[in-house]
Design goal:
The complex is a heterodimer of chains A (120) and B (1010). Chain A is an alpha/beta fold and 120 residues long. Helices cover 36% and strands 31% of the residues of chain A. Chain A has one domain: STAS domain (Transcription Regulator spoIIAA, 2-Layer Sandwich). Chain A contains 4 helices and 6 strands. Chain B has 1010 residues and is an alpha+beta fold. The longest helix of chain B has 32 residues, at 383-414. In chain B, the strands form 3 sheets. In chain B, strands 11-10-13-17-5-14-16 form a 7-stranded antiparallel β-sheet. Chain B is 57% helix and 11% strand. The radius of gyration of chain B is 42 Å and the shape is elongated. Classes of the chains: A alpha/beta (120), B alpha+beta (1010). Chain A binds chain B through residues 20-21, 24, 28, 32, 36, 39, 53, 55-57, 59-65, 67-68, 70-72, 83-84, 88, 90-97, and chain B through 551, 558, 577, 581-583, 585, 758, 784, 786-788, 830-833, 835, 854, 856, 872-875, 878-879, 883, 902, 905-906, 909-911, 992-993.
Chain lengths: 120, 1010
């Protein structure tokens, strides 16, 4: 399940569960759909505090979305990853590609406008 | 130190001798000309006693022989006699009937070139020869001059030795000789009362002697010090000429029934020069010797023509064999007949020519080979030089050829073509669209076909176009027309499909629509206009999906920029979301281009430095090896030692055929190893009598052990060069053996790879390889394609294949990984990335270099201690340039390097701290066998994975094992290609990811190869 919140031109996505090979394709499709449906969004924040496991397939999805956001002049960032996710992200050098924040608030500190929408 | 010891020995031994000589000199000085003959006899006796004293092994001096043997044991009697003879001949030679510069020249050479013991017989011989040829006063002058030279030699020698390579040494020597000769000659003439013209005569004689010494002494000194003759330059050639001329002039005075030995020697030397260095050089040598002989014999100018003709003729006919060459000497002499006054003179000349011809015929082949190896040849290069140049040439050619192929493949990979070795891609055709149709051209064709389908829908159109010449095929892939057409096709597919007015726009008004879209794209590109107001008026009224068209146009424009920068991805225009966004920003594109330029520059620099190293040969080592092998009874034709290549040394020996199969080869390596001071092994040994078969096919022979073959293009080039040389070669070279020696590697590498797919029956997404790079290094690679199954396997396999190719071309590790990253970035589908874990182990030093791109840590197990090496890094295909981590460390014998895929590190993915547990597993493993370590790690990972814990079962484990190097490609697999799969239960384990463990152990190299 992905919970989506729009803060101005920032899209906050709250992800829960495991992000591994078994659901990587589903995860990718969902993210693409959300990104495509918000063409004006320049920043996507992925809140991962509810992610219990992520492997290289899940991280590959993140790399791909980061690339897509970069192509439109935006960025994908990670917020509040759990211990396992943090370790996996570090191992694959994710912090050198995209910003990893300790909390969602920290990630959205620069954003002022708030608008919410929900997607299941 | 040697020189000092010898001088001391001379002092100890020379006491009695000098006293005898002192007596003789006193008598000669007192009694004048009439006592000359008696003096000569006394001197001869003195010389004889000296000879007996020096030759401790000969009869008369047997009682005291042991003492003399202790002092002079290293001096051979033949050498001493030879020195005396040369001294005699040189002393006997006079110019213009009175000047004798060659006696003091011989003495100078002996004193400066050898030690005093060798100089003694030369001095004695020169004194006798001078006394007989030029008279007693000249002998007195020579004695004084020799004494003065010996006095000033010790203080002067260090300065001359320091500058002996330069002009200063030459002129210092010449000046010393001139001074000493002048003083000695003047004193002698003053003693003998020769008159007022004495200073003039002395000065002329001294000048001749000084000039000769300036040329000859430094050359001979260098030869004596190095123990070998250098490849002659102008000075060395002149020195040789002066020496031969001196001998000829000296011998010319010995006339037996009108026959002059000097003329015979001159003819012989001219013929040799002609054969070895060509007709021009033969003529020059003949003319020079003829002038010398004419001056010495006061008027026989005909000798100049005869010797010149003999030298030139010998050079011309030398290709036709020795007999013809010998006959040409006699023939040249006959042409002098019409200028000779009597038949006796003609007969004498013919006898001289016949003696020279016989001498030429009986000259051993090895002696000619010894000279031909060094002397300039017809084209200005010696055999030695040509061989070296050939080696350098082929080294460069081979390297550049390999680099060219590699960069060509890299360029093709950037455009979407298959990467890596085709043999490594042979089993990837299932889903590898990119490899289905070749490289660049098929990619373009595929894109063009897609474009046609998009622009001109309908099967009839499509089939028609396929049958005629494709207009897009000939066009540039990046031309504006193609880009515009591609963008229009994209807009049509994105915005117009399903539109009720589709037929109006794309059938009835297709050209108008196309033109309007091109105008729209131009407006966006030039002015950034992106609203509906930028649409052409007619199009606005006609189109009902203007917003979609605008959005698609913006996307297409972005894609066009990326495509224009990087020549496209080769898979454009599929119509989906994929590939429609700019895949690279400008900074990434610039970094990739900069990387490639840096890679090319680095590759060229490496080739250049290697070629320079190849050109720096060690002549001293070559001389040592040559002499030692000759002394061991091994017929050596050429030796080439270059301090470059693999392990920093390469020795190439061309020798006579082995008497028994391989006997000489086995004997050569230990001998050369002793001389070089480090163990060497035979990497190549070719003995053949004709052009071997299989050269064109590129097949490589095995070496004597049947285990190794050179692998790089440069090596192949060198091998082929030698084979071709000998195949074509001169008749005398057939049957030779060429032996290539390289430093024996210290280590071998044993490897064991265990791959476990995520599910039984599924293709592992991991690929691995253990590859001998052919330069004493082994590459150990694991690549993990993100995801599992065939797509991941395809990505990781391509990465491994490309890495291998780049590393085999000698490119830097960083460059190789960054290039793989750039290609992956350009070609990979969406979010498919590949981790790269690369270790290159130098088998000479044990040094390991590791580069990681998104790979988990590697482990080094030394005994029961395990350390982890690794830091976070980014996988290949994410960004350019990518962030890789590079490590270097020295491995020791018995160390096991364990590389794992992230299936291992993610096995404990439920949050447990797996690192220490994994290290403990490795620590507990049998330290001697990489197989045990690899299997233990896989077992642990399998047992730790959540699926295994639930199911408690095993999977299908595939292993690839490699024996000790140097097999060229020890192991290379992608999991499913592993050799000898083993089913341990056959149950699905549902692990999170594919598991690959690659363990390599460093062991001491096989003793046979040392």
């Amino acid at each position: 399940m992905i919970r989506c919140t729009l803060y101005g031109k920032s899209l906050v996505l709250e992800v829960a569960g495991e992000l591994d090979l078994n659901n990587a394709e589903e995860f990718r499709t969902a993210l693409d759909s959300l990104i495509d449906s918000h063409p004006d969004v320049r920043q996507v924040v992925l809140c991962m505090d509810q992610v219990t496991f992520i492997d290289s397939s899940g991280i590959g999805v993140l790399f791909g979305r980061q690339r897509r956001m970069a192509s439109r002049g935006g960025a994908l960032s990670i917020a509040s990853p759990g211990p396992q996710a943090r370790r996996a992200l570090d191992l694959l050098g994710v912090p050198s590609i995209m910003r990893v924040y300790d909390s969602r608030e920290q990630a959205l500190a620069a954003e002022a406008e708030v608008r919410k929408c929900t997607r299941k | 130190m040697d020189g000092d010891n010898n001088i001391d020995a001379y002092k100890r031994v020379g006491g009695s001798g000098s006293s005898r000589k002192g007596k003789g000199r006193g008598k000669r000085a007192a009694s004048g000309q009439r006592q000359e003959s008696r003096t000569r006899r006394k001197q001869a006796r003195g010389t004889g006693s000296d000879r007996r004293a020096l030759d401790g092994s000969s009869g008369g001096g047997r009682k005291g022989g042991s003492a003399h043997a202790q002092l002079f044991g290293k001096y051979s009697a033949a050498t001493l006699w030879g020195g005396a003879a040369i001294g005699f001949v040189c002393g006997f030679a006079t110019l213009f009937g009175g000047y004798g510069p060659f006696g003091i020249l011989a003495v100078t050479v002996a004193l400066f070139g050898w030690d005093i013991v060798y100089a003694m017989p030369v001095i004695a011989g020169a004194l006798v020869g001078t006394a007989l040829g030029a008279g007693a006063s000249a002998a007195i002058g020579l004695a004084i001059s020799a004494a003065l030279l010996e006095v000033i030699r010790k203080p002067l020698w260090p300065h001359i030795a320091k500058s002996s390579d330069g002009q200063a040494g030459s002129w210092a020597t010449g000046a010393c000789v001139l001074l000493c000769t002048f003083i000695g000659s003047a004193l002698a003439h003053e003693i003998s009362g020769s008159g007022v013209h004495v200073p003039v005569v002395s000065l002329v004689e001294a000048g001749l002697a000084g000039a000769s010494a300036a040329v000859v002494v430094p050359t001979v000194t260098t030869w004596a010090q190095s123990g070998r003759m250098k490849v002659p330059g102008r000075v060395e050639s002149a020195a040789l000429l002066v020496m031969v001329a001196a001998i000829c002039a000296g011998l010319d005075w010995i006339s037996i029934a009108g026959v002059s030995p000097g003329a015979a020697v001159g003819l012989y030397a001219s013929a040799i020069a002609g054969v070895l260095a060509g007709p021009g050089a033969g003529a020059i040598v003949g003319a020079a010797l003829g002038v010398g002989l004419s001056i010495a014999s006061s008027g026989q100018g005909i000798l100049i023509g005869v010797l010149t003709l003999a030298g030139a003729a010998s050079g011309i006919v030398s290709k036709h064999g020795r007999a013809v060459t010998a006959f040409s000497i006699v023939l040249a002499a006959t042409f002098s007949g019409y200028q000779l006054r009597t038949i006796a003179e003609f007969t004498a000349r013919m006898i001289e020519a016949s003696v020279a011809a016989i001498g030429f015929l009986i000259t051993p082949e090895w002696l000619l080979s010894e000279f031909s190896w060094r002397l300039p040849e017809k084209i200005g290069e010696s055999d030695c030089d040509r061989t070296r140049m050939d080696g350098v040439h082929h080294l460069i050619m081979g390297k550049l050829s390999m680099l060219g192929r590699t960069f060509g493949e890299l360029a093709a990979a950037y455009q979407g073509g298959p990467i890596g070795d085709s043999k490594d891609m042979d089993d990837s055709d299932g889903g590898a669209d990119d490899s289905s149709g070749g490289r660049r051209a098929p990619a373009s064709l595929e894109a063009s076909a897609d474009l046609r389908e998009d622009l001109l829908p309908g099967q009839a159109w499509r089939s028609d176009i396929q049958e005629i010449d494709d207009p897009f095929e000939a066009a540039s892939y990046d031309s504006p027309d193609i880009r515009a057409a591609r963008a229009a096709a994209f807009i049509r597919s994105q915005a117009c499909n399903g539109c009720p007015r589709y037929d109006v726009c794309w059938r009835d008004m297709v050209f108008r629509t196309y033109r309007d879209l091109v105008d729209l794209l131009a407006a966006i590109e030039l002015f950034g206009e992106s609203g509906t107001e930028s649409l052409p008026d007619g199009f606005k009224h006609r189109c009902t999906r203007t917003e979609r068209v605008i959005a698609a146009s913006l996307t297409a424009t972005g894609r066009r920029r990326a495509g224009a920068t990087l020549a496209g991805r080769g898979r454009l225009g599929k119509g989906g979301q994929q590939g429609t966004e700019a895949i690279l920003d400008k900074s990434s594109a610039v970094s990739i281009l900069a990387l490639q330029m840096a890679g090319v520059a680095d590759a060229i620099s490496r080739v250049s430095s290697q070629a320079q190293g190849m050109a720096r040969f060690d002549e001293e080592a070559e001389g040592l090896i040559r002499r030692q092998l000759l002394a061991a009874g091994i017929g050596i034709k050429s030796v080439r030692v270059s301090w470059t290549g693999y392990g920093g040394l390469e020795v190439y020996i061309v020798k006579s055929p082995c008497r028994q199969d391989g006997e000489c080869v086995r004997a050569i390596a230990p001998l050369v190893g002793d001389i070089i001071g480090r163990p060497v092994s035979v990497w190549q040994a070719d003995c053949f009598y004709a052009r071997p078969e299989g050269i064109e096919g590129g097949e490589l022979d095995t070496d004597e052990n049947g285990t190794h073959r050179s692998s790089t293009a440069a090596e192949i080039g060198i091998e082929r060069l030698w084979k071709l040389k000998s195949g074509r070669g001169r008749p005398g070279e057939c049957g030779q053996c060429s032996v290539r020696l390289l430093p024996a590697r210290k280590y071998d590498l044993e490897s064991e790879a265990v791959t476990l797919p995520r599910m039984m029956g599924e293709t592992s997404g991991d690929s691995h390889a253990v590859v001998n790079l052919g330069d004493g290094r082994m590459a150990v690679i694991i690549a993990d394609g993100m995801g599992v199954g065939e797509p991941a396997s395809r990505e990781s396999g391509a990465a491994v294949a490309m890495l291998v190719r780049l590393l085999e071309a000698g490119l830097d590790l960083d460059f190789a990984v960054q290039s793989v990253n750039a290609v992956m970035l350009l070609r990979s589908e969406d979010d498919r990335f590949t981790t790269v874990d690369l270790a290159v182990v130098d088998l000479y030093t044990g040094q390991a270099e590791m580069v990681k791109a998104g790979a988990p840590p590697s482990f080094i197990k030394r005994g029961h201690d395990v350390i982890a090496i690794g830091d976070p890094s980014v996988p290949a295909g994410v960004q350019a340039p990518t962030r890789v981590m590079r490590y270097r460390m020295n491995l020791e014998e018995g160390d096991i390097l364990i590389m794992v895929s992230d299936g291992v590190t993610e096995a404990g993915g439920d949050g447990r701290e797996f690192g220490m547990e994994l290290v403990r597993v490795m620590e507990r493993a049998d330290s001697d066998l990489p197989r045990n370590v690899a299997e233990d790690v896989v077992e642990w990972a399998r047992g730790t994975s959540p699926g295994a814990r639930n199911a408690g079962g095993g999977g299908k484990e595939q292993r690839t094992q490699a024996g000790p190097t140097p097999t060229r490609q020890a192991a290379h697999g992608r999991g499913r290609r592993g050799g000898g799969g083993r089913d341990e239960g056959g149950r699905s384990i549902e692990s999170r990811d594919d598991i690959t463990v690659l363990a390599v152990r460093l062991s001491l190299a096989d003793a046979r190869r040392m």
